[in-house]
Amino acid sequence: MFWFMPDQEAAVRLIGLRKSFGPVEAVSGIDLEIADGEFFAMLGPSGSGKTTVLRMIAGFESPTAGMVELGGVDVTRLAPFERDVNTVFQDYALFPHMSVLDNVEYGLRVKKVPRSERRERALAALGSVRLDGFERRRPSQLSGGQRQRVALARALVNRPRVLLLDEPLGALDLKLREEMQVELKSIQREVGITFLFVTHDQEEALTMSDRVAVFDQGRIEQVGTPAEVYERPATPFVASFVGTSNLISGDAAHAVLGKGGTYSVRPEKLRLSDLDAAVGADEHSATGTVAEVVYAGPATRFVVDLDVGGRLVALQQNLQVSSMEVTELRGSRVRLVWNRRHEFAIAS
Amino acid sequence: MDPRLDGDQGLMTATAAPGVHAPPGGPRRRLAAFLHRHARVRLSLLLSAPMAWLGAAYLGSLAALFVTAFWSVDTFTGNLVKEFTWANFRDIVTGEVYRTIALRSLGVAVLVTLIDLVIAFPMAFAMAKLASPRAQRWLVIAVLTPLWASYLVKAYAWRVLLSAGGVLGWGYGLGATVLTLSYLWLPYMILPIYAGLERLPNSLLDAAGDLGARGWRTFRTVVWPLTFPAVAAGSIFTFSLSLGDYIAVKIVGGSSQLIGNVVYDNIGAANNLPFAAAVATVPVVIMLFYLAAVRRTGALENL
């Protein structure tokens, strides 16, 4: 079976990775395996250590302890230019004194790829990010979204084993960000390169990636598919950071669920009903008063203070109602109903 | 009551008169409001003093220098003869001595600039990119400190160092002059390059390394082209300061002479102000050529 091993090597493997800056420990022991061809997200608030981990994989920072393996090879002590990874930087880091084409060709020129092949590959890369005809422009003559795509082309043209993306969509406006999310995903499927990207935007992580690692205070709180992380958060931190935290704990848990501990239910799983609404055998429910109504176009968030203590947020699609009608519900008495299989115990 | 005026209108005129529409407060407030509304007036008020200085004191004296350069001196009486003549410039161009001295001065200025560049760039790079913020502050202070000491003190310190019995004991001459001038003008090269490197985003260095470039290549293709304007700015300082200097060469230069010495000697000993003015235009012209050359590289556009 040995000969199968190289194919099964993880694209990236982190073993006991730590990094301290003076007295501050930014990364406190990370173990992680990312499979070949995976679109992997490192999600966490700022200061959670995710960018430092990315920089250690790229080689810009050297770890205080632990190991970085790329394709089964230990690269912990190698310089950035010796590693088969490329990075899309948060500020894009395009060379301002070079044309778009020279930027994209830079890596190939360093690797002494012959001129004609270089040109051909660079033009193909620019084509794949839909920037044909922009070769002669300077980065300063491009919009934010175009610069972002040049940065992507400049990295992809080298066909690295792993592409690292540091908050790649952070500087774009909402509309463009949503477009690029779809585009990045399709580009990744086309080229088949492992994408490892860092973001603080939970929606971005959930929509784009195959798997997500949720970071907090230099540690990984949970690794899993977007659905796993969202539907079954492993810790209270994950529950609150990924989506809205709807926790039922203590006396409320005893009163409503008939058991102790901490449980999470996602807002869209809650159904807003009349006080005397029927509750099915496989359902739980709790009564309360609507404290706040937040109308958000396609849906409305109802903040409900439970009679047994605690507060839950319910998200309802605005299928028939208008903003006038929903805001009138403020202060009214309601019953929240949800299916039992949507409540999950959380380790505190 | 006036039939054309109803009660309301009367009330309006009564209350609207001084208090409501006029800006509250005294003349200072009104002046501030006026300046706020008239940006051009504000700008010209702010610039009038510096422009007067630049025009009268700076450009005026330069113009006087050029005019004087075309006069001559009566050799018997020593009085100025205010009549136009090319004689001074003819003497400079045809005189072997002056050509040698001009070329020597040019050589010294180029050499000092190159030496300062070679020393300043690594220093500025370490300050801007490698040092911790704390060390960075101290290094900037260390670079600035020599500027607080008098020029003469520093030049004489080098004289002592270089004297036959001194620590270095290399003696005086053109080499000693170059060395001393390099020392004197080094901060003027370090600081602009440091500022230029500060503005260079670290991510560009990371990006070059990420794309496979080693140190030298990163320097050649990214750092140097992007900091060249800063280097040009620094070189303008070191070049022009060296070109005009005559004190350092007097102190450590031994018997060698630079353009500055010729100017000085003609003002003092020879009492030939017009000739001194003509000689003084030589470094000005060289500087104009130098600035034109720097401009051609496009470095001045990003200053």
Question: Could you describe the 3D structure shown?
Answer:
The complex is a heterodimer of chains A (348) and B (303). Chain A folds into two domains: 2-241, Rossmann fold (3-Layer(aba) Sandwich), CATH 3.40.50; 247-346, OB fold (Dihydrolipoamide Acetyltransferase, E2P), CATH 2.40.50. Chain A has 348 residues and is α+β, with helices and mostly antiparallel strands. Helix content of chain A is 29%, strand content 31%. Chain A is built from eleven helices and 18 strands. The relative contact order of chain A is 0.12. Chain A has a six-stranded mixed β-sheet, with helices on both faces. In chain A, strand 1 and strand 2 form a beta hairpin. Chain B is mainly α and 303 residues long. Chain B has a domain at 95-302: MetI-like (MetI-like fold, Orthogonal Bundle), CATH 1.10.3720.10. Chain B has a two-stranded antiparallel sheet with strand order 1-2. In chain B, strand 1 and strand 2 form a beta hairpin. In chain B, helix 4 (87-94) crosses helix 5 and helix 6 (133-148) packs antiparallel against helix 8 (174-199). Mean pLDDT of chain B is 86; it is low at 1-20. At the A-B interface, strand 6 and helix 3 of A face helix 9 and helix 10 of B.
Say what the CATH topology of the largest domain in chain A is: Rossmann fold
Secondary structure: number of strands of chain B: 2
Proportion of strand residues of chain A: 25-35%
Using the CA coordinates, give the radius of gyration of chain A. 24 Å
Across the major sheet of chain A, the strand order is 6-7-8-3-9-10
Q: Count the DSSP helices of chain B.
A: 13
- Which CATH C-level class of the largest domain in chain A is it? Alpha Beta
Describe the main β-sheet of chain A briefly: 6 strands, mixed
Q: If strands are numbered along the chain, what order do they take across the biggest sheet of chain B?
A: 1-2
- How does CATH name the architecture of the domain at 95-302 in chain B? Orthogonal Bundle
Assembly type: heterodimer
Q: Mean pLDDT across all residues of chain A, rounded?
A: 90
Flag low-confidence runs of chain A. Answer: 1-6
